[in-house]
Amino acid sequence: RCIPVFLDEETVHQYYNGYCNNILWPLFHYLGLPQEDQLATTRSFQSQFDAYKKANKMFAAVVNEHYQDGDVVWCHDYHLMFLPKFLKEYNSNMKVGWFLHTPFPSSEIHRTLPSRSELLRAVLAADLVG
Questions:
Q1: Which pTM value belongs to this model?
Q2: What is the phi/psi pair of residue 91, to 5°?
Q3: Which region, left, alpha or beta, applies to residue 100 given φ > 0 means left and ψ of -120 to 50 means alpha?
């Protein structure tokens, strides 16, 4: 099934253009983070991260609304790293897989991300990670 999730314009901007494309994409492609030494303390980083979580929660709510016992939910890429966690909060028995379409960054690169622990824990809520 394919069900649309409607995000408001500001959330899309902060979530997709901000956190996904400005923070995660460069990190996962070994380009580093913008202003790495100041990143965690900037308001723009926090607002982008908040929008990222908000968007993932919205996706989870729509999936949960349409979920039927026996369904397997397959989450794709760094845009949805919080989705496994939020889905499991709705239903701990839901079968969830998460797949990353790029190599996961090395620990040396990954450690530069202020939200790294929270993101990694969210992904590890999935039953299958690939």
A1: 0.91
A2: -155, 105
A3: beta
